[in-house]
Structure to design on (85 residues):
């Protein structure tokens, strides 16, 4: 009978330890879920900024090409006007 009580006490103690460990792991999991959510939101913001910068860069590159074409035409007109003098 005493052996049975000791085994039962050990089983109860082990169950309590397991329940405590489950609680600790659940708390850690909550923290990790929160960190993951924050990380995803942070990445979303950074991706949005990068896409906006990419669009701005594309507009500036197009504007630079147009200005280069305009400069080329101006230089041609300048060369033609010098020949006419």
């Amino acid at each position: 009978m005493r052996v049975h009580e000791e085994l039962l006490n050990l089983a109860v103690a082990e169950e309590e330890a397991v329940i405590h460990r489950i609680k600790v792991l659940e708390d850690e999991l909550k923290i990790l879920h929160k960190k993951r959510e924050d990380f995803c939101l942070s990445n979303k913001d950074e991706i949005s900024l990068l896409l906006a910068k990419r669009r701005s860069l594309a507009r500036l590159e197009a504007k630079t090409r147009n200005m280069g074409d305009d400069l080329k035409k101006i230089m041609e007109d300048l060369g033609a006007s010098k020949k006419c003098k």
Remarks:
- The first helix runs from residue 2 to 84.
